[in-house]
Request: fold
Amino acid sequence: MIIELILTNMLTKSANDESKSFFLKMVADYNRYMCEVVTGDKLEIAK
Reply:
């Protein structure tokens, strides 16, 4: 999953606070977009 990849690889290797903030925002945006487009059982998982 994209979020797991960002959290385990990109965020842990970020050199400064600005890049960490960027990756955390990316995770939040991805979650928001997923909640907007998924339906049915997948929606309950995305929430």
Remarks:
- The two ends are 15 Å apart (CA to CA).
- The chain has a mean pLDDT of 86.
